[in-house]
Amino acid sequence: MKQEKFKIRARLESFKYAFDGIRTLFVNGHNSWLHFIAALLVIISGIAFRISATEWIAVIIAIGLVFSSEAINTSIEKLSDFVSPEKRGSIKEVKDLAAAAVLISAITAILIGLIVFIPKIVTLITIK
Fold first, then answer.
1. Distance of alpha carbon 34 from its chain centroid, rounded?
2. Quick check: is 3 in a domain?
3. Does residue 2 belong to any structural domain of this protein?
4. Which residue stretches of the chain are H helix?
């Protein structure tokens, strides 16, 4: 396989494909909208509670983890449906495992959110 020369223009054009993927994720992935709404609420809460830089890092990583796993899950589902339009046990397992990855990342994000926000809510309640 011949290796092409590095070209900045080609690298910049590759971003188009990534942004096309993000668009596809939100156009075709209904769960992505739920994750987006949750992320927006968390970001608003982070601003309202003035969370620390370290807490922002944890929250941003959690949000990125959920969206990344949702994108991978969606791509696996689409590829599986293309490769095997008929129902098959092995394809079901692959799709279930990909969905499990999203669930695991969402649960992780929830736990991070609880660790970051519960102390702030408790402090707010005890001050009143």
1. 11
2. no
3. no
4. 8-28, 30-49, 53-83, 89-127
- Residue 117 in domain: yes
Cα separation, 109 vs 65, in Å, equals: 8
Number of domains in the chain: 1
Q: Which sign does the torsion angle of CA 81, 19, 112, 47 carry?
A: negative
Is residue 1 one of the residues assigned to a domain? no
Residue 73, domain extent: 8-127
Report the predicted TM-score, pTM, of the whole model to 2 decimal places.
0.86
The answer to whether 51 touches 59, Cβ cutoff 8 Å, is yes
Please report, to the nearest 10 degrees, the dihedral formed by the alpha carbons of residues 123, 45, 62, 79 taken in order: 150
- Residue by residue, pLDDT tens for the chain (128 residues) are 677 788 888 888 889 999 999 999 999 888 999 999 999 999 999 999 999 999 999 999 999 999 999 999 999 999 999 999 898 999 999 999 999 999 999 999 999 999 999 999 999 999 86
